[in-house]
Write a structure and sequence with these properties.
CATH topology of the largest domain: Rossmann fold
Organism: Paracoccus aestuariivivens
GO molecular function: ABC-type amino acid transporter activity; ATP binding; ATP hydrolysis activity
Radius of gyration: 19 Å
Order of helices and strands: EEEHEEEEHEHHHEHEHEEHH
Strand content: 25-35%
Membrane topology: Peripheral membrane protein
Structural class: alpha/beta
Strand order of the largest sheet: 8-9-10-3-11-12
Shape: globular
Bound molecules: adenosine-5'-triphosphate
Protein name: Ectoine/hydroxyectoine ABC transporter ATP-binding protein EhuA
CATH superfamily of the largest domain: P-loop containing nucleotide triphosphate hydrolases
Family: Belongs to the ABC transporter superfamily.
Length: 261
């Protein structure tokens, strides 16, 4: 549990002249479950999108599994990564998106088998066996032949989780996986994520506004504000005795939000 599997080393991310990540540093160890919390616009999703190679960086180095993600080793130091390097590195990570992002014209089963067959070159029968196991894991064995529009949002998101797992990533990223769901469907998705977290050796990095859930499943919480980590610690430390005024303010407003629902 000691090697950092993810390392952000002075990472800078800008959109035009807006600096979203400002020399960001953090490590995540293999097998750790870490949640990023923080106000809207603080750069939480950007961290995940950089790891999924959906957004580039303007400064610093991101390491995944001990190798630079956005760079390669050249003869005299690091050089920008080639597409082949990015493609290879991306295979270590899977992501569950806020809006599920399922293919609407494909059955549930095909949504899960498509990438393993096309990207990993798995045989169709093997991909189907893997998908069926994962559908059982997320409690959707009876829905394999349905299309996404025939499922509830919670069921679609559980397919999204199975689809990410089908690529056998070492690291699973969750970008606000329940925020597009009706409140009564949130629990079933959190249960699946909680079960995964208990039963699998996956490294998990989550962005969520579900504070109670973050508290239950995380080994560590990172509190972000304006592209920097203001405070980090175990859920017990951060939620019961936050050290920084900014953290207390944020947690207070989140509590108000929860009580207002
Ligand atoms: N493609 C983009 N082009 C321009 N600005 C962007 C882009 N993506 C994100 N941003 C800006 O970067 C900042 C950080 O966005 P990000 O989505 O990472 O925040 P967040 O902390 O995840 O917020 P939320 O909780 O609302 O999802 C925001 O100000 C956002 O408007």
């Amino acid at each position: 549990m000691n090697d950092p599997i993810i390392r952000f080393d002075n990472v800078v991310k800008r959109f035009g002249d807006h600096t979203v990540l400002d020399e960001l540093n953090f490590d995540i160890r293999k097998g750790e479950k870490v949640t990023i919390i923080g106000p809207s616009g603080s750069g939480k999703s950007t961290v995940l999108r950089i790891l999924m190679t959906l957004e580039g960086i303007e400064g610093g180095v991101v390491h995944v599994g001990g190798e630079p993600l956005w760079h390669e080793h050249g003869p005299v130091g690091l050089v920008p990564a080639s597409q082949a390097h990015l493609h290879r590195m991306r295979g270590q990570l899977g992501m569950v998106f806020q809006q599920f992002n399922l293919f609407p014209h494909m059955t549930v089963l095909r949504n899960i088998t498509e990438a393993p067959v096309k990207v990993l070159g798995l045989g169709k029968a093997e991909a189907r066996d893997r998908a069926e196991e994962l559908l059982e894991l997320v409690g959707l064995s009876d829905h394999a032949q349905k299309y996404p529009h025939q499922l509830s949002g919670g069921q679609q998101q559980r397919v999204g989780i199975a689809r990410a797992l089908a690529m056998r990533p070492n690291i699973l990223l969750f970008d606000e996986p329940t925020s597009a769901l009706d409140p009564e469907l949130v629990g079933e998705v959190l249960n699946v994520i909680g079960q995964l977290s208990e039963e699998h050796d996956l490294t998990m990095l989550l962005v969520t506004h579900e504070m109670r859930f973050a508290r239950e499943i995380s080994d560590r919480i990172l509190f972000f504000d304006q592209g920097r980590i203001v405070e980090e610690g175990s859920p017990a430390q951060l939620f019961t005795s936050p050290q920084r005024e900014r953290t207390r303010e944020f947690l207070g407003s989140e509590l108000d939000r929860v009580l207002a629902v």
